[in-house]
Amino acid sequence: MPGTVVVPGQGVGAGFYDERVTTDQALPTLLAQALIAYRIELDNEFELRLRRSGFAGFKLPVEFWPLIRPVADERTPIAVLLEQTGRPRRELFPAIGGIERWGYVEVRLDADTQPRRPRQDGYGSGRRLRPGSVLIPTPVGRRARDLWPSVIASMGDRWAERFGPAAMTDLDTSLAMIIESRAESLPDRLAAVLQAFASEVDADSPVPMRIAANFLPALSADPTPIGELPRRTGITGRPVTPALGALTRAGLITSGPVAVGRGKAVTLTPDGLAEQVAFTDRVAAVEGSWRDRYGAAVITSLHDALDALTPKLAEGLQPPEQGWRASREYAAQTRAILDDPRSGLPRHPIGPWLTTS
Fold first, then answer.
1. What is the pLDDT of residues 276-328, one digit of tens each?
2. Taking a C-beta distance cutoff of 8 angstroms, is the pair 47, 104 a contact?
3. What does the alpha-carbon distance between residue 199 and residue 281 come to, in Å, rounded to a whole number?
4. Is 62 left (phi over 0), alpha (psi -120 to 50) or beta?
5. Which of 20, 26, 203, 205 is spaced 20 to 30 A from 195 at the CA atom?
6. What span, in angstroms and rounded, lies between the C-alpha atoms of 34 and 334?
7. Domain ranges (residues) in the chain
8. Residue 130 to residue 237: CA distance in whole angstroms
């Protein structure tokens, strides 16, 4: 049962979850799932409009929108994106490789060179990029840049219609009481509050909250096949391998072959079992400190506003026909989210390369 943890010494057998200790209703989980659901709905609407424009099959999670927005029709140095996004090179350069690989931009390693092509060294990755490298939008990149503002603008109306204007006002008011943000959009405000919470939890954690929140509750003292993790965490695709690597380096898990068949399984170490409980305690401690700092009424109001959204989140998460979230690779996870957003969605955004972020 994702979202619950094993508590040693409380009569729970190895490998079984104790439902008395749960993170599913914690404030950061509710913040994260509302944010992730909003982003999925944005992505689905964008893909639908792009397909209607004649560009089928192009996936571009909303996480990449800030990279497309500043790219002018002629050429844009990567230095401009470094300045406007504020993202470090180690994060920005691989993301640029992604939008190159998906066909939204061409990359010239130097201003006067030809665009690099598939099979060339570094194509579709961050290799050999430098601040003076240049981006040129392709036709689909220009169309994406034109579409995104209207897609983003429409989302506020969609959520107000689904959840009610009063619910959106209550949510916005509660968020504003916690952190002053210049962000104009609801997902940016949700992200700002979630990041503030995560930074406090991470101050004393062996792994970042984006990993701990998603993977520690899904594991136990018994081996868990890696193939089971998408169902338990809501996460598919590229983030799984680096997350397991971080947990291994921290000494929280070990891995080995599955008992039957092919593949690997991961098991919480004694330190991992202890961290499973400690992480839940840290989340509870930060939430308690926020109640002291901002007022219990404010935190309760935010918690209730977010909790009220959950039953209707799935109404906006059906992917468009032939959309990438409906493809074979992601279909099972998409169905799990539609059936039960609370158990199907991840507990924290972990990256843009998965079906749910």
1. 999 999 999 999 999 999 999 999 999 999 999 988 999 999 999 888 888 88
2. no
3. 15
4. alpha
5. 20
6. 16
7. 4-45+154-344, 61-101+104-137
8. 27
